[in-house]
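Tutorial, part two.
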Amino acid sequence: MRADMSHSHAHAANYDRAFAIGIALNVLFVLVEAFYGWMADSLALLSDAGHNLSDVLGLLLAWGGYYLARLRPSRSHTYGFGRATIMAALFNALLLLVAVGAIAWEAFDRLAHPVAIQGMTVIVVAAMGVLVNGVTAWLFMSGDHQDLNLRGAFLHMAADALVSVGVVAAGALFLWTGWFWLDPFISLLIALVILLGTWGLLRQALHLSLDGVPISVELEQVRTYLSGLPGVAAVHDLHVWAMSTSEVALTAHLVMPQGHAGDAFLCSVMQTLHDDFGIEHATIQIESDSESCVLTHHE
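Running the prediction step on this input gives:
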């Protein structure tokens, strides 16, 4: 006997406006930063502009995944399109790694051939970046702990705000010291900050894309809970995976020699899985004899 309970998942807030505002602000800032970076011959500004451009593309990917995740299931996609958020987070991380490589390459070249920069221009434009990126990060702050896709958007914008602070520091230090190497050196620090911030996102997105158990779920705790239920002699074919960056699914076979305990039992199990483990979609199969199930021998 099988029972399935699917809790409809609704985001606590609608982030369409946040994506639209964030993308618009960052597109305008990329144009301003690239222009003044070229005028000031500042690699720090140009590299930050390139990174911000990659974040615009990242926000577009995240928005696309966020939109697809809300589409209703269909006959050809019975679970809906929630996995698009995982793909968006993965592509987002890969895009940032490409940006890191480009920044580092240019920075090493500039270290070998240093040039002077217009320190005050760098300071003013980068200060604008602190404001733009800070505001954009704030728009996604509430979704940081709920959704890996939204967390990726938040982390990118928060890191950009910190990076812009670093560029301000580079401009100020250049005005004070006149050291030409400061600009490419700060660019390398920017690349390192992006790399460190991206690694965790890449690792988690890749893990979920391969149907790994979400880090929010302790599989052995779930198994212990199910095994300890009244009348349950064994648990097998237990699987937990991410349907999206914010929804978790589970399937399990419960061996109950005394037979099915009734719908109230199943409803209680589903509710606990939802409330205590954050599992939105659970399917439980009740069996009286584990040997009768061919899946027992395939775990």
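The chain has two domains: 14-209, 219-298. In part three we will examine how such features are distributed along the chain.
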